[in-house]
Amino acid sequence: MKYSLIAILFLITNSLTAQLQDKVDFIHGKVNIKIDPTDESIAGSVTYQFKVLQKVDTVFLDAQNINIIGIKLNNKKARTSYSGKKIILHKHFKANKTYTLDIAYSASPKQTVYFLGWKDDVPGNEQVWTQGQGKYTSHWLPSFDDMTEKVEFDMDISFDRTYQVIANGNLVATKELEGLKKWSFNMDQPMSSYLLAFAIGDYHRKEVESSTGIPISLYFYPSDSTKVEPTYRYTTTIFNFLEKEIGIPYAWQNYKQIPVRDFLYAGMENTGTTIFSDSYIIDSTAFKDRNYVNVNAHEMAHQWFGNLVTEVDGSSHWLHEGFATYYALLAEKEIFGKEYYYWKLYETAIQLRELTEKGMGEALIDPKAGSLTFYEKGAWALHILRSQIGETNFRLGIKRYLKKYGFKNVTIDNFMEEIKGDTDNELDTFRNRWLVDKDFPFEEAKKILIRESEDLKIFFELQKKIMTSNMGNDSIIKSYWQNIDSDRLKAKIIKTYHKSLSQEFIGKVIGNENVLVRQALATTLGQLPLDLKSENESLLDDGSYITKEEMLYKLWTNYPSNREKYLNKTKGIIGFSNRNIRLLWLSLALLTKDYEPNNTNNYYMELSGYTSPKYPYEVRQGAFQFLQQLIGLSDNNLLDLVGATQHHSWQFRKYARSLLDQLMEKKEYRERIDGLRAKFNMEELRYITNKLILE
Ligand SMILES: [Zn+2]
Known about the structure:
The chain is of the alpha+beta class. It has 26 helices and 23 strands.
């Protein structure tokens, strides 16, 4: 899984609460379900084959709040109990015997399955999709919250035939009956329940293939055909690179990637079926600023590290997230070059040092560590391990490890044993320093960066000189500048020392450097050097949505007499999928006196309309922000805001709740919200009533 915001969430893995069941092995699961989006329910059956390893009197499955219609064991009525959390089968189960278990059930999952767009009037935006990790597949299917139970799942899903149904495995058949279409998927290999997934919606797809012949399906919304190339750029390059680098063939029949709206994370690596946030659907301009490459590579790497070999429990979570982060970084190194790789390591080293300095450092073996530790410290640990034992040994160890534990579960000890192999490498020091120690060894990391990266060697040298020399910062930077080729290094110098740069130097940078370096100036300069008007204006033409957004605002603020010119120049630009430029533009157009007075109402209606649940939550959040700061919220906006307090994405929910709290401090808003009561649904009403009582 990949978070879009680093280090905020603490990851509690399934295993912390899951109960082990080691006398029984579930082998095969045949799922046959019908999904009804109108009442957000799932109904159907699952048939499991399981083998009893040692005689036992109870066997259980996890099933959260489902409605059981019938349970049969070997085709006979079974003695069972159900607590609302676990289905327990009571019988004298004999060792070495295989049983067949049939469960007919229905469910109205409150989490794990998300239904979007079924209640609005926007055609084609309807979706249903799952998120198993951290949310429990057992909310929609009697299955296993414990990751060590690996089952070969085959799924049949019946749904309205006008939509595309996508799930793990090979689509082996479709059949139409009574207006519905039944999609049959087959898996060849076992996986943990949290990796089971489906996604349903209005999709087109592009088919590509890896160099080893694995079919790769790239899904997209029908209206996004021009964005397929930039969004999925380098997909086969990454796939081929990972297969070659890891040295073990991709283990699943095919690979699919499906964007969905308002996803909970950046992406989720369901087996062969990555679901990711459609905010990564981008055009060529956005590619430079914000692209899908890292998330693409991260979820793909999980197909080996996480899906093929799976942690026994959260104390080995490094084996998932550290590895996916590291291999994604290696793939990016292949695509964007060596220095890109080291800059990323440097940036994470700075974040990890901060955590250590605050006394909040965490060990990689701590199941309760945060994502910064599991992901970034985890990737650092692998970089160190690889340089310590050498590339050849590292690769051999990885191969041994994946071969031995493929389709099984692992601990960090299992990994360490295989990576050591029969070499006499002493790995205790590594283990203590990188896996057990809470602190991040920044000085050691810095030495490595200086030794291995040309850019960082120069950067640290420059830093030192600025700290120790009597010369002015501007002259020191100038003396380095002409010998630097790297745009990333130049951008970093600007971001770090922008306050020391002279106007003359800034003018030269704008005149001579490329988009990346100019962007560093556009985003960091708090105050534009007003004399450089034409230079500043030229930044508005750069092919970067970040630069354009920054400069539109800064130019509009700094040169009031030219506001109309800047607005005309950027009219119609949308920006990223969060519509960053359009939202800013509408706000500025409304604030600019006498700007297109005939259109004022249209512009207001457009901006105000973006708070509607029809739009992705990033757009809604932006619209709420601008409206609150500049104009105020209409009754419709307030209704949308109250609705957003119940949104399934915790980031957006949190934002909406805190904005609402802020508004309700004002009497006027409190009264208006109270007056809208009749329009709230039950959950909204309960939430608001509690708030009003507390006031
Ligand atoms: Zn991940």
